[in-house]
């Protein structure tokens, strides 16, 4: 990590990630040949990436480095403005400055009020990232191409009062990212379901859930008419009939989990996959490479992997079974 923060170079892409994951983001960009440079906590710059980086929360090409509101050059096309600081200790201290800049910026009358409107109208998200008090990276990305619609990729999901675990927010963010959710009456299998955060979010949508975990679900879920608890290891379970949705949040070795999910894909036991992989090892990119390989061998396609905002030392994977 550089001792002082480095200013991003106009013309290059600026990426932000979860604090302490800069090295993993740097490495995956280097593996793509994108010539990364570590700028400071939560910030890496590079050439344009060939594939969206797993560890980036958001990225944009830097058009300008400004240090005052008067200097800010805003886009001439329709846009929504997002002023943010990285999700780090320094970034936390800059959050009130971000608010001041956002309210002082001279915005056109037709500026879009929220990122969803920018998405709907094919418009831009204008990004102002506060690297420090006097170094603001400015650029834009089309809303439909953005890694996240949330400022700085901090897509906070609300924890519902009845949610049995924090994990429920990971599922909500994953489904939002995927863009579809299980509907009423659809069959889901939830591997590693206890205490039931994911299962609970699925039954709220009207889905039926086979929850597989040797540990207990909350009493409400144990007696829920749409939940069947299989109190066993996921490695010893197979459904009687193929299901539409396979969810997996097992706290287990990632390669073995990938192999299990690969078996589900090969045997066509599910159509859509949403999984969370725990990555406690240092060599995360090498493990992700193996996971991708095992899932592809296991008939899963459109495999997308991202460390979402609610993911800690873990990543979210979505995929669809090859027809
Ligand atoms: C992070 S927790 C899951 C949280 C859950 N998704 C929720 O929303 O409440 C991980 C779970 O994996 C389960 N687990 C670990 N090994 C397993 C196995 N072989 N089969 C099934 N579940 C397993 C653990 O019992 C634990 O309940």
Describe this structure in words.
By secondary structure, the chain is α/β, with parallel strands linked by helices. The chain is built from 9 helices and 14 strands. The chain has helices spanning 22-31, 89-93, 95-104, 115-120, 167-178, 197-204, 219-222, 254-266, 284-297, and strands spanning 13-16, 37-40, 43-46, 58-66, 79-84, 124-132, 135-142, 187-191, 208-212, 227-230, 243-248, 270-278, 300-306, 314-321. Strands 2-3-1-4-7-6-5 form a 7-stranded mixed beta sheet. It has a 7-stranded mixed beta sheet with strand order 10-9-8-11-12-14-13, with helices on both faces. α8 (254-266) links the parallel β11 (243-248) and β12. α5 (167-178) crosses α6 (197-204) and α8 (254-266) packs parallel to α9. The longest helix is centred in the last third of the chain and has 14 residues, at 284-297. The N and C termini lie far apart (45 Å). 44% of the residues are buried. The model has no long low-confidence stretch (mean pLDDT 96). Residues 164-165, 167-168, 191-198, 212-215, 233-235, 249-252 line the site of S-adenosylmethionine (SAM).
Rounded mean pLDDT score: 96
Using only CA atoms, what is the Rg?
21 Å
Class computed from helices, strands and strand pairing: alpha/beta
The shape, in one word, is: globular
Order of strands across the biggest sheet? 2-3-1-4-7-6-5
Report the major sheet: 7 strands, mixed
Our count of helices gives 9
Ends apart, CA distance between termini: 45 Å
